[in-house]
Specification:
One of its GO terms (biological process) is iron-sulfur cluster assembly. This is NifU family protein. Belongs to the NifU family. It comes from Rufibacter glacialis. The chain is α+β, with helices and mostly antiparallel strands. It has two domains: 87 residues, Ribosomal Protein S8, Chain: A, domain 1; 91 residues, GMP Synthetase, Chain A, domain 3, CATH 3.30.300.130. The protein is 35% helix and 23% strand. It has a five-stranded antiparallel beta sheet with strand order 1-2-5-4-3, covered by helices on one side. A three-stranded mixed beta sheet has the order 6-7-8, with helices on one face. It starts with 10 loop residues before the first strand and ends in a 5-residue tail after the last strand.
Length: 205
């Protein structure tokens, strides 16, 4: 008889500033360190059987997966207190059973990929500023945003304006605009004098 060495998976729920999102933290790895994936629709989650299964719950409207947690956003007025036990049980059972998280290697958002995607026609000065911004986002901003169940990725820098993308719980969060302006923009302005403004894709001020 072969000894069962399957590791017991623990899952706990952690609230974040977005009342419509809940972060489920595991004691095991779902995705390589530093990477994350954001699925705003079931159609966008074709590479992740795990995310697709979560979308089968009719109240799930968005799934965000990072190193050791998954953030679920709901579109239902039902309180989280009623939904958490069901989701926690599903996540624990799925991962313990060895269900596939991804089909192949997922398309993740990382600082490295942001650097690689920087437009080749940037001037040397803009490329240098962009890299400074990426480093600051990665080292100072992203860890705090991940604590809240989300992610921030660099999109572009042009004429003093930094454009970022907010994912997971940060997308649609009522406090995201305040965080963006009072926190992230102030930090970047202080550390990189060339930065005049920070805007987020999909967020209207």
């Amino acid at each position: 008889m072969t000894e069962n060495t399957t590791k017991a998976v623990s899952v706990y729920a952690e609230a974040n500033p977005n009342p419509e999102s809940m972060k489920f933290v595991l004691n095991t790895t779902l995705l390589g360190e530093g990477g994350s994936v954001d699925y705003p629709t079931v159609e966008s989650a074709m590479e992740s059987p795990f995310a697709q299964e979560l979308f089968n719950f009719d109240y799930v409207s968005r799934v965000f997966i990072a190193s050791n947690f998954v953030t679920v956003t709901k579109n239902s007025p039902v309180a989280w207190a009623q939904l958490i036990p069901e989701l926690r049980t599903f996540i624990k059972s799925y991962v313990e059973a060895g269900g596939p998280i991804f089909l192949g290697t997922p398309t993740t958002s990382t600082a490295a990929s942001a650097s690689a995607e920087m437009s080749a026609d940037l001037s040397a000065e803009d490329a240098e500023i962009s890299q400074k911004v990426i480093d600051l986002l990665e080292n100072y901003v992203r860890p705090a945003v991940e604590q809240d169940g989300g992610n921030i990725t660099f999109r572009s820098y042009k004429e003093g304006v930094v454009t970022v993308n907010l994912q997971g719980s940060c997308s649609g969060c009522p406090s995201a605009t305040v965080t963006l302006k009072a926190g992230i923009e102030n930090l970047l302005k202080r550390m990189v004098p060339e930065v005049q403004e920070v805007v987020a894709e999909g967020i209207t001020l």
